[in-house]
Amino acid sequence: MTVLELKGLTKRFSKTVAADDVSFELREGEIFGFIGPNGAGKSTTLRMIIGALTPDAGEILMDGTPINKNRHYRQNIAYVPGDINLWGNLTGEEVIRFFMKVRGYTDMEHKDRLVERFRLDTSKKCKAYSKGNRQKVALICAFLSDARLLIFDEPTSGLDPLMERNFHEEVTAAKKDGRSILLSSHILSEVEKLADRIAIIREGQIIETGRLETLRHITRTEYVVQAEGDLDALKELPYVHDYEVTETGVHMRVDNDAVGDFLQALAPHQPSHLESLPPRLEDIFMRYYEGRREQS
């Protein structure tokens, strides 16, 4: 079942096109990763979804209904931006309870569990909170909600590694509950770890959408080779890139459609060790931008 669908979303600010014909869909019980560099159009797209910006063109549907025909659709959304502003003179506890009252949530046991999980001192006033603690308040409120769609824009900004792990576990639990998660992050390993599918956005345009396994064909596999002889001849091959000699062996990246040719070329060198490192989401992402720079 499709929970959220974007059809040709476009948003301009003067002469700048922040989002250009953006289209994708998010299914029930799915974690959808949304990646791109700063200024690519991620936050603009998310703000259109929550109604903070009005698209110049295109359509947003929730459960198959355009959001402009359902003014209550936001009740099914919990949104956490990358930088949180809270009421400075209220304590963390007061802010959380306020949001619980506004949204009609009464599960105090769940609230206490999340506060303990994220190690938040709720007795402090929000003006004394660090960025990370402000982020924790927003995350706790989002996970407390019964929203069917959770939208996170750089959610772990300001969090330490332990809190990042706790966030990942809460997201996974939300998915198991059947909720849908739209995750925008510049931490590519985070998206790679959590997302079922991803969309890559560049200069306001979606340039690829799909499961990670189906996107690996556009990148290169890294090999680490150890051999008695000199391997320098391999770096002249057109499908070998980023050749580097290190203490652990010779590292090189090979085009995936030329792996057979590479292994044939390597065989005469009688390697004593050959290790392949699978492509990472970061490799896929950087490959796009390297290609862009080479063309410009």
TrEMBL record:
Question: What PROSITE patterns does the annotation carry?
Answer: ABC_TRANSPORTER_1 (PS00211), ABC_TRANSPORTER_2 (PS50893)
Q: Which InterPro entries match?
A: AAA+_ATPase (IPR003593), ABC_transporter-like_ATP-bd (IPR003439), ABC_transporter-like_CS (IPR017871), ABC_transporter_ATP-binding (IPR050763), P-loop_NTPase (IPR027417)
Pinpoint the ABC transporter domain residues: 4-228
Q: Name the UniProt key words of this record, in alphabetical order.
A: ATP-binding, Nucleotide-binding, Transport
- For this protein, what is any one GO molecular function term? ATP binding
One Pfam family it belongs to: ABC_tran
Name the CDD domains for this protein.
ABC_DR_subfamily_A
The UniProt entry, under PANTHER family, shows: ABC TRANSPORTER ATP-BINDING PROTEIN, ABC TRANSPORTER ATP-BINDING PROTEIN NATA
What family is it from?
A: Belongs to the ABC transporter superfamily.
Q: What protein name is recorded for this chain?
A: ABC transporter ATP-binding protein
The organism named in the record is: Salinicoccus roseus
